[in-house]
Design goal:
By secondary structure, this protein is of the alpha+beta class. About 15% of the residues lie in helices and about 35% in strands. A 4-stranded antiparallel β-sheet has the order 1-4-5-6, covered by helices on one side.
């Protein structure tokens, strides 16, 4: 999965919307302390993602946190996004997920000089 890297915010993500699908991440390991002992606990995190085609690649973007990735197919892009999200959540605070409710894709036309 060599393409599991974040696409920078404000990157060129403008063409070819393919689909919108909620993804349930595999349970993530979180370090916690119980009775003075450090241990790993599992936590399931549900996030919403969108996948679209950009040039010859597919881009998968998480709507709930600012993480995205890409791949040669939709499945590759989602798998790479999952890996990027797992890495992101290793160090993210518990309240890092901002739940997006009912996202809709809308076209916005701008004029420029």
């Amino acid at each position: 999965m060599g393409n599991a890297r974040a696409v920078p915010p404000g990157g060129s993500h403008s063409s070819g919307f393919v689909g919108n699908s909620p993804v349930t991440s595999r349970p993530l390991l979180r370090r916690s302390h119980f009775a003075g002992v450090s241990c790993l606990t599992m936590q399931a995190i549900d996030v919403q993602t969108v996948v679209f085609r950009e040039g010859e690649h597919y881009v998968a973007q998480c709507l709930d946190v600012d993480v995205s990735s890409f791949g040669d197919s939709e499945d590759d892009a989602r798998a790479n996004l999952r890996e990027a999200l797992e890495l992101y959540f290793e160090d993210a605070p518990a309240d890092a997920v901002a739940k997006v409710e009912g996202p809709e894709v809308r076209r916005l036309t701008l004029e420029r000089a």
